[in-house]
Amino acid sequence: MPDGISDETAAAAMMQGLTASHLSTETYPIGPGGIAVVHAAAGGVGQLLTQMVTARGGRVIGLVSREEKAAAAREAGADHVLVHSGGGFEERIKELTGGRGADVVYDGGGTGTFHSSQAALRPHGVHAYYGPFMGVPSLRPTDLPNSILLTYPVVHHHVATREALLQRTGEVFDLILAGASSRVVPPANCCSCPDRPQTLTGRKPGPAANPVRPQPGPAEPAAPDRLNRTQQLAPGGPMPLTRKGAATMQRIVEGAADQIREQGVFAVRLEDVMARTATSKSQLFHYFPGGKDELFLAVARHEASRVIDEQQPELGSLTSWAAWQQWRDKVVARYRAQGSDCPLHAALAQLGGTTDATRTVAGELLGRWQRQLTAGIRHMQGSGEIAPDLDAEREAAALLAGIQGGVLILMTTGGSTHLEAAIDLGIAHLRASVRRER
To answer: What is the pTM of this model?
Structure first.
């Protein structure tokens, strides 16, 4: 049992927590911007599932059977709560999603909600039906609308071995521990014992015990009305990671980068990354709910940081011509060793070089690099080694452009001649500026 998890917490969270976990990860790995319909959103599984979905950046339309249950669903994080007994809610969900429909319906409502759940989905959406004890509906495959997918997830299929059980319970406990200072806190009624009116963190129920929707402070504006605005179903903030979670996420990113180096980006499969990093599919999608694209974006950010880090300390200490030469040699040696296997370039190419995300990663890298070159030029101007009338930022930009061109040629031909020429001529231009001024 991890530190911070009591026996009572573990016992209360076990069944509902495992159900909510596999529904939101393996059954349908909800991600940022995804819209989920959660039946019985005020119940034990429903509240946990709502919190797990919102923690992953998804948005929830909660269904409850009575008005008095709506408050619990909203406190758990539902963006909209509909009071419905049985079916007939599909049109309201279509309205809330701009006519598109939900990405997934987590349906524990039984036969009375079965067909409405399917009608509420977008084309190719997922109907996760886990309410067989309330009746099994009659169904023909041709009855399924909009090419939706129907699945019947069962907990024991996801924890068939002791290793799988330990892994999945560990993920649930990680979420509970993260909830101690964030949004993922299991609800008070996860344990149905009437003499235990407390949350799984051991605190008495009340505003202070449920941080899912904290009250705004003086510097924080009140939350907009979620009940009447479909556009509020938008991605939320990222879920904080525990130290163990951060280490797992970093291991996955580094393993994916190594896999790209060895196989090339187009040959890499998520299964290869999972095998290399000893992680499961549920773990991978827990940290990267957007799948391969989100993982490759993380690889790109990681590799972009490496580009700068591997030039240090020389890049940050361009205070003499000897230091500039040392930096030059380091850059050339780095890219010679890398050759054509560049995970940063490969990941950005796979994602599409003109997306906002790839522009941001490339822009951040080039911005950091140019700022450090600019600082070096200005230092040399201050010591009289470079003419003071040169525009330091433009000179750094030109030098960086030459480096990038040389790197692309090196990746194509395998030769570093053009990269070396770009850096050598750039440095020579800076050194000659003082002689030209005289």
So the answer is: 0.45
